[in-house]
C-alpha cells in the first residue's frame, strides 16, 4: 500500500475507548452480528431502502465545496501534458486502460486506486491545497499461504482518518470511515447488483455505527463505470454513470472533494455534538457514568457503552455516555432514531448527577415534534382541574427539544429532487427487516416504523430533531415481576385516559414505550407518533406502530368490526383509542411470556422463552384477534388457575373493544369528533378495572410456567421418538 499523506485535522482523534468500559464501544468495534448472515441482511437493506438516481451534473453539486481542492478545475489540469502523463501512470493497470490484465485478481487490480489517490494528493499539494483530511485504504487481501479470510462485511476501499488504527484482520472500523468504495472487474448485471448491495451496506453502517453521523458517502466501480453515492434518512441518491478513463476529471473531482472536505461536509454533526479527547476529565467522567449505568441497570440489554459525546442545545450542554437503543437507526431510510443516556453539564464542566435520555431523530417535516406534542398535552385547558404533577406522573417528562435544518436544506443543498429518478427496489425473500440489518433479530427490539400489509410512500424530507427527557427508568419488557408489571400498566392506562380526554391517539403502543420508574409507576413515553383526532387521515405515508402489538384494524388497514353494509365504499381507516387499548393488551400478553429473567436464568431457559415468543408473536405467528384462538393457544403455556382467569378477562375485554371499535367506526366523522371523549373514557376505565382484577390474580414472583411447559413438550417429543425407534 502506498504511504498516505498525513494531513492536519480539526477533528479529535477517534481512539478506542478504555478497556474498562462495560462493553465494547459500538463506534469502535465491529458490529455485533453474525457476519455469516451478511448477504441476507445486505439484500433486505437494498430492498427496503428508497433509491434514486440523479444526473451526474446535479449530483456533483452535492459534493463538498468548502476546500480549495474541491474548486480545482481537473479538466484544465488533465489538459496539461505533465499532469496527463502522471495520471496515465497512476491509472495504469485499472480496467479500461491498455495495461489492464483481466486475469489478475480483482483486489490486485483495484489496488491501483492507491496510486490514483496519492497522485491526486500530490497535485493538490502543488496547487497549494492544505490537507488532505483523509487517507485511502483498501481491505487487506489473503496473502499466499495465509488462511485468514478477509472480513467480507467491510468495503473494498475506505476513506479514513490518517491516524486511524486497523482492527481485526487489518480492516478499519466504521467509526474512522468517511466514505466507502466497492469494485468489480466486470460491468455485468450481477456485478452491478452485488455492488449495489455492498454500497448500501457500507452506507448503512456508516450511519448506524456512529451516533453523530448524519449522512454517508460512497462510490462504486464496475470495470471502469463509476457512480457516486450519498445516503440520507430519506433514502439513497446515486449519480448517473460515467467512465473512469474517458471522464477522469469527474472521478478526481469527487475524490478530491471528499478527501479535503470538512467534517460537517463529510456527514458529522459538528454543530451540536463534539467528542471529548481521551484522558480528559470529561472522557473519564463519561467512562464512570457508563460503568455505573450498566451496573445499576443490568436489565438494560440494549445499553451499550459508546464513545462519549457532548451535545449542545439552546442554553444547555449534555454528556452522552451510553447507547440505550438504536434499532431504528439500523436501516438507512426512516427516522434513524437512537436514544442515549446522558448527564447535564454544569458551567464548569462538572456533571449534574441526574440522568437524562436524549432522543435523536430525523422527523418527517409534516409531523409535529415530540416536544411540542408533549407541551400541548401538559398545557391543555382540560387539565385545569388537575395539578400538573397529577398529569406528568404518568408520562415521561420532556425537558428540552430543538429542531434543526431539514434534509433538503442541510444536505441536498436545495437541489430539485424532482430530477431524481426512482430506482425500483430489488425484491428479497429474506425474513429480516432493514432495522435488523446490523444485528441479530430480537423480538424485544421492534421497530416503530415497521413494515406491514400496507402501501408505503417514502418520506422525501425530514427534520433533524433532538429531544431531552428525564430518565424515566426501565422499559416494561425489562420487568419480570408480574405483580409489579400489572401495577405499572395501570399507570400507563391512566396516561391513555388523559390522552382520551384531550382527543389524542398515541398510535405506538409497545413495551419499549411503556416505562417503569424507580417507584414502580408506569409512564407513557414516545409521543413521536401521537396525533390529535380529527377528520384528516395521515398523508405522510410514514409507517407507525409495531406489528406484533398493532390492533387488528391498524395492522390490516381496514375496518373489521363495522356493521355497515359491505356494498358501501369503506372509509379510510382512522386510529381511535380502541386501537391503543388493544395494543396495551397485546403488549401485556407479551409480558406474560417474559417469565425468565435473562440475567438470572440459564441460557436454555432463555432459548426456550425466545422460541415461544416467536411462536406467538413472530412474523409468521402473529396472534389473530377476533376469536378465542389466541388465548386458547396461550392456555397451553399458562396452566395455573389464576393464569386461566387472567386470559379469560383479556378475552372478554378484547371482544368488548372490538364491539366498541365497530360502533365508533359506524359514526360519521362529525359524530366521532363530538362524542370522542364521552364514548371512549368509560372504555378506558373498564380496562383499568380489568387490570386491577388481573393484579389481584397474579403473584409477585417470576413464574417458570413457560419453561416447564416447553420442557414437558420436549419430553413428550423425546418419548414419542423413543417409541418409534423401539418399533
Automatic annotation (TrEMBL):
InterPro entries: Kinase-like_dom_sf, Pkinase_fungal, Prot_kinase_dom. GO terms for molecular function: ATP binding; protein kinase activity. Pfam families: Pkinase_fungal. Residues 1-37, 135-156 are annotated as: Disordered. It comes from the Eukaryota. Residues 1-18, 140-150 have a biased composition (Polar residues). Residues 362-727 form the Protein kinase domain. This is Protein kinase domain-containing protein. It comes from Calocera viscosa (strain TUFC12733).
Amino acid at each position: 500500500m502506498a504511504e498516505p499523506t498525513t494531513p492536519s485535522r480539526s477533528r479529535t482523534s477517534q481512539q478506542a475507548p478504555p478497556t474498562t468500559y462495560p462493553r465494547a464501544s459500538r463506534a469502535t468495534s465491529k458490529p455485533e452480528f453474525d457476519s455469516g448472515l451478511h448477504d441476507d441482511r445486505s439484500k433486505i437493506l437494498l430492498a427496503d431502502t428508497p433509491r434514486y438516481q440523479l444526473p451526474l451534473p446535479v449530483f456533483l453539486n452535492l459534493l463538498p465545496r468548502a476546500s480549495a481542492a474541491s474548486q480545482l478545475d481537473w479538466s484544465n489540469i488533465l489538459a496539461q501534458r505533465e499532469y496527463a502523463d502522471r495520471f496515465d501512470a497512476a491509472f495504469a493497470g485499472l480496467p479500461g486502460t491498455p495495461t489492464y490484465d483481466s486475469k489478475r485478481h480483482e483486489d490486485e487490480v483495484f489496488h491501483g486506486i492507491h496510486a490514483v489517490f496519492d497522485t491526486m494528493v500530490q497535485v493538490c499539494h502543488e496547487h497549494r491545497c492544505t490537507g488532505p483530511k483523509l487517507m485511502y485504504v483498501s481491505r487487506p487481501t489473503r496473502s499466499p499461504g495465509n488462511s485468514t479470510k478477509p472480513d467480507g462485511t467491510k468495503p473494498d476501499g475506505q476513506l479514513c482518518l490518517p491516524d486511524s488504527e486497523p482492527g481485526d484482520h487489518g480492516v478499519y472500523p466504521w467509526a474512522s470511515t468517511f466514505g466507502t468504495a466497492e469494485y468489480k472487474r466486470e460491468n455485468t448485471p450481477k456485478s452491478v447488483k452485488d455492488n449495489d448491495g455492498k454500497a448500501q451496506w457500507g452506507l448503512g453502517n456508516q450511519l448506524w455505527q456512529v451516533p453523530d453521523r448524519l449522512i454517508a458517502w460512497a462510490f462504486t466501480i464496475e470495470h471502469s463505470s463509476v457512480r457516486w453515492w450519498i445516503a440520507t434518512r430519506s433514502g439513497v441518491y446515486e449519480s448517473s454513470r460515467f467512465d473512469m478513463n474517458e471522464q477522469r476529471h469527474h472521478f478526481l473531482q469527487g475524490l478530491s472533494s471528499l478527501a479535503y472536505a470538512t467534517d460537517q461536509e463529510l456527514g458529522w454533526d459538528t454543530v451540536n455534538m463534539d467528542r471529548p479527547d481521551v484522558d480528559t476529565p470529561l472522557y473519564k467522567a463519561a467512562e464512570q457514568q457508563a460503568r455505573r449505568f450498566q451496573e445499576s441497570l443490568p436489565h438494560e440489554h440494549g445499553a451499550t457503552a459508546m464513545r462519549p459525546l457532548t451535545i449542545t442545545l439552546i442554553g444547555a450542554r449534555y454528556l452522552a455516555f451510553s447507547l440505550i437503543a438504536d434499532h431504528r437507526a439500523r436501516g438507512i431510510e426512516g427516522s434513524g432514531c437512537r436514544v442515549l443516556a446522558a448527564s447535564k453539564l454544569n458551567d464548569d464542566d462538572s456533571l449534574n448527577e441526574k440522568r437524562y435520555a436524549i432522543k435523536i431523530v430525523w422527523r418527517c417535516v409534516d409531523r409535529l415534534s415530540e416536544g411540542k406534542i408533549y407541551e400541548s398535552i401538559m398545557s391543555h385547558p382540560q387539565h385545569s382541574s388537575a395539578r400538573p404533577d397529577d398529569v406528568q406522573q404518568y408520562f415521561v417528562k420532556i425537558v428540552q427539544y430543538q429542531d434543526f435544518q431539514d434534509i433538503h436544506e442541510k444536505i441536498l443543498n436545495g437541489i430539485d429532487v424532482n430530477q431524481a429518478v426512482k430506482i425500483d427496489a430489488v425484491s428479497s425473500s429474506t425474513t429480516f427487516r432493514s432495522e435488523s440489518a446490523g444485528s441479530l433479530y430480537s423480538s424485544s427490539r421492534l421497530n416503530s416504523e415497521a413494515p406491514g400489509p400496507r402501501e408505503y410512500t417514502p418520506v422525501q424530507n425530514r427534520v433533524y430533531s433532538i429531544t431531552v427527557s428525564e430518565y424515566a427508568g426501565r422499559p416494561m419488557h425489562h420487568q419480570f415481576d408480574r405483580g409489579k408489571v400489572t401495577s405499572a400498566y395501570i399507570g400507563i392506562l391512566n396516561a391513555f385516559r388523559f390522552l382520551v380526554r384531550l382527543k389524542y391517539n398515541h398510535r405506538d403502543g409497545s413495551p419499549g414505550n411503556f416505562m417503569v420508574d424507580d417507584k414502580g409507576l408506569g409512564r407513557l413515553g414516545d409521543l413521536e407518533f401521537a396525533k390529535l383526532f380529527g377528520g384528516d387521515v395521515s398523508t405522510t405515508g410514514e409507517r407507525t406502530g409495531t406489528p406484533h402489538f398493532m390492533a387488528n384494524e391498524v395492522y390490516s388497514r381496514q375496518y373489521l368490526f363495522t356493521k355497515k353494509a359491505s356494498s358501501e365504499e369503506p372509509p379510510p381507516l382512522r386510529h381511535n383509542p380502541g386501537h391503543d387499548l388493544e395494543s396495551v393488551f397485546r403488549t401485556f400478553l407479551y409480558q406474560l411470556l417474559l417469565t425468565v429473567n435473562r440475567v438470572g436464568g440459564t441460557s436454555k431457559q432463555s432459548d426456550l422463552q425466545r422460541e415461544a415468543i416467536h411462536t406467538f408473536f413472530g412474523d409468521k405467528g402473529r396472534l389473530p384477534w377476533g376469536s378465542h384462538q389466541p388465548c386458547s393457544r396461550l392456555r397451553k403455556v399458562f396452566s395455573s388457575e389464576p393464569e386461566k382467569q387472567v386470559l379469560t378477562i383479556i378475552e372478554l375485554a378484547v371482544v368488548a373493544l372490538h364491539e366498541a371499535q365497530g360502533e365508533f367506526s359506524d359514526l360519521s366523522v362529525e359524530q366521532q369528533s363530538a362524542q370522542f371523549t364521552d364514548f371512549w373514557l368509560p372504555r378506558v376505565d373498564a380496562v383499568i378495572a380489568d387490570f386491577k382484577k388481573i393484579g389481584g390474580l397474579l403473584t409477585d414472583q417470576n413464574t417458570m410456567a413457560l419453561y416447564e411447559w416447553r420442557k414437558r413438550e420436549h419430553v413428550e417429543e423425546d418419548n414419542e421418538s423413543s417409541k418409534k425407534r423401539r418399533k
